[in-house]
Design a protein that fits this description.
Collagenase (Catalytic Domain), four-stranded mixed beta sheet, disordered N terminus, 8 strands, single chain, about 325 residues, 2 domains
Length: about 325
Amino acid sequence: MINIQTMNYIIRKGLLFLIFLTIVGFYSCREEDNFDKESVFVDVPELNPGDYTYEFDKWLEDTYLTPYNLQFRYKMQDVGTDMYYNLVPTTLEKSKQMAILVKYLWFDVYSEVVDPDFLKAYGPRIIHLIGSAASNPSLGIEILGLAEGGLKVSLFKCNNLNYRDIEQMNEYYFKTMHHEFAHILHQQRTYPKEFEAYTAGFYDPAGWQERTDSQAASLGCASPYGSSQPREDFVEIIANFIVKTDAWWDNLYAMAAKPGIDVSGQTVDDPIDGEAVLKTKIEICRKWLKNSWGIDMDALRAEVQERQLYIEDVMNETYW
């Protein structure tokens, strides 16, 4: 029979041994976790020249994977989507069009205006194309994009892409890209808290989908979704500022200067000067991007607006 003194001795020794194993394990993990930034993907399959998509896949490898360490996934992976939604893949034709446009209107823009290495350091590591929208009929909304942990951006409804319809393309895809990328940026360097004060008390995360554009504008928000919560407001201001035209903003300011009109056509008055608040929020975003990231938001917008004029020419070039 083991007496109490012996038992205490065994327990103390056992605890010391466990502590030793924990320390060793901790440092072993620390050493193994010192990954090279260039080695995010360790199991990328080799391309097969016999595949009918080989030329496109090789272009994606040369355009995205090699320079940006980014996988451009157009063959939809069910494990990479929410199984709650009934989703379909993006067609090969639309995938090719989207791959060209993402490079031309997003990656090349940052390379030209900010720095060629900026998206290599801060951009997503996966872009996942999904053909259909992720719809939630009970809430009356559809998801157009998701940014997951600063690593992955999913774009939905890609089978509806019409590159000749700039307004639709911006609303569905490129506003979404800048929206999700702005989330990635502010998750690393938070935006000024003063931003939240201008529409405080009027954000509605549960009922924003019932608001009209007019109501959102009167509250100083760029969209109804922007009126849902401060962080969505912040990235909606940035995304819409970059991709939308002067005419679009003039119309938004005109709505913002008047009381909002709800879905039933009734006036909904509020104490906010929507036009002034919108302009103040833009200035906050402008300073934050410049001071936190060295990004000139006006130059970024000018480059995007200029490039939109030449989309037809870009799409008519030969890539593979």
